[in-house]
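Task: complex structure prediction.
Instruction: return structure tokens for all chains below.
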Amino acid sequence: MKYTYKQCLTDCTSKLVQEKGYLIIGQGARDGGHGMCATIEEKLKDSCIELPVFEETQTGIALGMGLAGENIISIYPRFDFFISGMSQLINHSDKINLMSHGKFKPNIIFRVGVGAKVPLDAGPQHTNNYTNQFKEMLTWIKVHEISKSVDPSKIFDEIYENGGIHLVVEHYEYYGDIVCGS
Amino acid sequence: MLGLEELAVVREVKFTSADLKQFEEDIAKEYENGSIKGPIHLSDGNEEELIKIFSYISSNDFVFSAWRNHYHALLHGVDQKYLSDEIREGRSMGIMSNQPNFFSSSIVGGIIPVALGTALAYSRHENIEKKVWCFIGDMTYESGLFWEAYKFSRYHNLPLNFIVEDNGKSVTTDTKVTWNSKMEVLDGVIWYSYKSKFPHHGTGKWVNF
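Output:
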């Protein structure tokens, strides 16, 4: 059976929502409209919260909901957009364990897409990948880049088991590829 | 003070104005002795206002504050010894607690989206009657982050209350001069003005560490 990168992301997302109660928040979470939405199954719609375009606020909302006990998948269709939420990510989510002495233990996944350059090149504001820069800046949040040779399910299995805060970077260019191990 | 009209008293506040002042005076002395190895932002002049506001805040509610947070933490029930120890360890600007729920940050406006998220989470559960209270200064009140959160919370009827503590400035920058105006008090926003004897940071005396 062919098991694509996109199908794997879809199944991993559904498993987290259905078995761990994760909520999906962000633009397109419920209403669709960008590539990542193709990995959110229709049956999950009741667990999706469509938000306005306000990435910094969205990133803070994810933490705030996490503090209240909700498990959150916060989606961003482009890394270029996600950087608008950097202050919340770096100054709050990444510092929450240190500043609260581990008293707050939110479970949050920041799912970020890297825009494709083929067959269409989306240009200088829609295709950047800042994973390495974020790895250098983040001290607590675990950063996972799902490159061509990585099976997404292994990353999501770790998140499923351990929770915590994770930045997961995915590439639209690989959505049709067959993932390792399938 | 504005915006308290529809609130109900839910708590008997155990601190007096004198208690609060004494706490900050004790911290000020320790700071001037050089024994606190981090910045402190002391409160003064708003004791009565805060005692009244906290009588409307349940101990089960979630309180968000900024760098000048000692009064808020004490009044919400954060353990006094824990608070003092945190301040002594240089962590005055980011006090956090999960019993009771208290989150503070030294990023201007940064608490607003987080408070919004907590209110959004509470609103999803009919059996949760908790509220969220977000204390901000007058400069933060003018920010875009506030506007986004205010609009979203009002349009979605979220249990989020903003309290604007107006001392007319951000650090030493005059809010009204920089904006060339000042925003009116919006519906549902609690607002009061005050003057503190303390500067933005420290006590006003030079400290040799």
